[in-house]
Amino acid sequence: MTSVNPSYRLLLVEDHRDILELVGAHFEARGYEVDYASDGLTGLHLAASNPYHLIVLDVTLPGINGIELCQQVRQQAKQSIPIIMLTARDTIEDRVAGLDSGADDYVVKPFDLAELEARVRAALRRASGDVAQEALVVGHLRLDLATMTATREGKRLALTPAGFTLLAELMRSYPAVLSRDDLERAVWGDDRPDSDALRSHMYKLRKSLDRPFARDMLVTVQGLGFRLEA
Fold first, then answer.
1. For the segment 23-56, what is each residue's pLDDT rounded down to a tens digit?
2. Is residue 161 part of a domain?
3. Residues 13 and 92 occupy one common structural domain
4. Last residue of a domain, one of 72, 96, 128
5. Structural domain span for residue 212
6. How far apart are CA 62 and CA 44, in angstroms?
7. CATH for 162
8. pLDDT in tens, 107-140
9. pTM of the full structure
10. 3 in a structural domain
11. 31 and 95 in one domain?
């Protein structure tokens, strides 16, 4: 698989081994360089000793927790490093505590890898100053890449993480047709699921994007794939 982000180095701090390996493998397959830590003290040592572009950080860690780790990274004058917190804690108080400690974003477990990757890309763009394309617009359809929200005619669309990724690919390629292979690669990379998975996600996307409105934007091109029609 071709590396798409060969210059980005990430630090992943997570004490659940299966999540650590799953997330790490996902980003390495996409060309990121990933360093790992399974406890807070090791994570802090690595963050203090190496130049990272972004840190993905669990909140509940042995040694020192993610809140403390985040605070210490910020205190050590590494303000430019984007930090995304991963946690099973989903109360408003927990989110506020995480953001107040210096985190740039907050992802609640269980999460979709496509959503996490999109949030990582958005954080890296903001950190590098590359914010020229924070939103995609096709007709009355607008997709905000930073906040991962979509609106059509000013109305908020309820999208799944996979649906967001699919819609973003279709909007970037507008008005061209994208094949099933193109869309599957956008969501799952080279690790493709069975054929029913894309069909299910496209059905949900069509339901959110078109059903509440008078005219369909998502068009099936028989034998070729899908495209958007403004």
1. 999 999 888 999 999 999 999 999 988 889 999 9
2. yes
3. yes
4. 128
5. 135-228
6. 12
7. 1.10.10.10
8. 888 888 888 888 888 788 777 665 445 688 899 9
9. 0.56
10. no
11. yes
| Residues 50/22, Cβ–Cβ less than 8 Å | no
Spatial CA neighbour of 144 closest among 72, 125, 127: 125
Give the DSSP H/E element, type plus range, for residue 141: strand 141-144
22 within 8 A of 113, measured Cβ to Cβ: yes
- Residue 45 in any domain: the answer is yes
CB atoms inside a 10 Å sphere around CB 197: 14
In a domain, 1, yes or no: no
Determine the straight-line distance between the first and last CA of the chain, rounded to whole angstroms.
33
- Beta strand 105-108 with 135-138 is unpaired
Residues 113 and 19 in one domain: yes
Burial 8-45 (b: 16+ CB within 10 A, else e): bebbbbbbeeebbeebbebbeebebbbbbbbbbebbbe
**Number of domains into which the chain is organized:** 2
Reading the block at residue 167, the tokens are 């819609």
Are 194 and 172 spatial neighbours (Cβ–Cβ below 8 Å)? no
Residues contacting residue 3 through CB under 8 Å, at least 6 positions apart:
30, 31
User: What count of Cα atoms within 13 Å lies in the side-chain half-sphere of residue 190?
Assistant: 10
